[in-house]
Every structure is written in structure tokens, then in C-alpha cells.
Amino acid sequence: MPDNNSLSATSRAFNRHFDELSILCTLCTTTISLMFRSVLLLGLVAGVAVAALTLLVTTVGDPTLPTLFSQVVKNLTMATVLFMCLFGIKRVRDRTPGGTISLPEAIVVGFGICALASLIHCAAWELYYFSTDYQFARENSQNLMQRAQLAGASAIEIAELMERNGKIVEAFANPFLRITTTYLQMFVIGAVVSLVGAVLIRNPKFLPTRRKEDNED
Fold first, then answer.
1. I want to staple 122 with a disulfide (CB 3.0 to 4.6 A). Which of 52, 183, 188, 207 is the partner?
2. SS3 of 2, please?
3. In Å, how far are 24, 171, 173 from 137, measured between CA atoms?
4. Cα separations (Å) of 129 from 139, 166, 178, 186?
5. What does the pLDDT profile of the chain (217 residues) look like in tens digits?
6. Taking a C-beta distance cutoff of 8 angstroms, is the pair 90, 207 a contact?
7. How far apart are the first and last CA of the chain?
8. DSSP per-residue letters across 89-116
9. Are 70 and 40 in contact (CB under 8 A)?
10. Which residues of 195-208 are buried (b: 16+ CB within 10 A; e: fewer)?
11. 164, 160, 165: which is closest to 64 by C-alpha?
12. Residue 182, helix vs strand vs coil
């Protein structure tokens, strides 16, 4: 039979491993909770900002015309989402115990924020399409035809443009293609930026927190 010393050593080892496992589970739970809150909060903030900018460009200007105003709003919309993706990754890294974040965790945060913002962006455009009886593609096609005629396009060029626009209008009438295209317009760029940001921001030395800078000084 094992003596008391052996049982005591086994018990201490078991307790030590149990404590380590408990700490690890606590850290994992804290990180997952922080990731979820960051994705939800920043994704909603980015989505609401994008929806507001979409409402602005559809009420103040004509989204079917390539004006400077619409281009500025479009770029501002994309910049808002990209900033939130990068800020979200850094926020999770800085608030995680130890100030580190793994590459998969960073990718999940960036993709999550981008996915939620893209979903709200898609819903905002669908609301606009519904309010205009889904005439956006047809009106945009007509504007393209008028500009081509004013630019002096030949009859062959106009015919080719008409055929191409007809396919676009037909595809736009398909809800699945319309929603998928609108969603991917923002998500693809956001996903690429999130990947790059995840690779950079997972390094604690990249954009370090003020606390770390003070400690190093």
C-alpha cells in the first residue's frame, strides 16, 4: 500500500494541475467573452454608422449617379468598417490578460466585426431598394445609356452597353444575387484588411498600449 508521503505528493500534484486548469479555463472564458462583446459592440457601431451614411447618400444625393459626394461617402463608409475591424483586434489584445492575442482569435474578431457591419449595410440597401420599388438597377442603366450617348458613343457601343446592362438588371431582380453581391462588396475588403491587421496586431510590440510604453521607459 502507498504510504502517506506518496499520497500527499500525489494530492499536491493533482491540486496543482487542477489549479492550472482552472486558471486556463478562466483565461479562455475571459478572452471569449471579451471577443464576443467587442464583435457585437464594434460591429453594431460600424453597421449603424454605415447605415446612416447609406441613408445620407440615398436622401441627399442620387446613388445612381457617380458624383463626388457619393464617392466620398462610399469611401468613408468603407474606412469606418476597416477602422472598426482593426480597432477591435487591438482592443481585445490590449484587454486580454498578458496583453497578447493569437492569430486565430484576431482573425475571428476582425471577421466578426466585418460580417456584422456588412449585414447591417446590406439591410440598409435592401430597405432603400424596397422604398424605390427595386428600380435602382434600371435607373442606373438608363443613366449609363444617357452618359454614353452624350459622350458620342457609336451605335455598336451603345448596343453592347444595353446588352450588358440588361444582364445586370436581370441579375439584380434575383434577391439572392442582389443580397450576396451587396454583402460581399464590403465583407471581402474587410476580410482582407482583417487578415493583414491580425498578422500585425497580434505582435504586442505593434501599436503597444500606453502602459507597456511607460513600463519600458
1. 183
2. coil
3. 54, 9, 9
4. 12, 18, 10, 17
5. 455 555 455 555 545 554 555 544 554 567 788 888 999 999 999 999 988 888 887 777 666 666 677 788 888 888 888 999 999 999 989 888 778 888 999 999 999 999 999 999 999 989 988 888 888 888 878 887 887 788 777 888 888 888 888 888 888 889 999 999 999 988 999 999 999 999 999 888 888 876 544 444 4
6. yes
7. 58
8. HHHHHHHSTTS---HHHHHHHHHHHHHH
9. no
10. bebbeebbeeeeeb
11. 165
12. helix
Q: Which three cell numbers stand for residue 205?
A: 510590440
Would you give the distance in Å from CA 87 to the centre of its chain? 11
Q: CA 27 to CA 33: how far, in whole Å?
A: 10
Backbone angles phi, psi at 36, to 5 degrees: -65, -45
CB-based contacts of 8, cutoff 8 Å, min separation 6:
none
Question: Which residue's entry shows cell 460581399?
Answer: 184
Dist CA 82 CA 86 (whole Å): 6
Q: How far is CA 189 from CA 10, 104, 124, 177, 182, in A?
A: 55, 18, 19, 18, 12
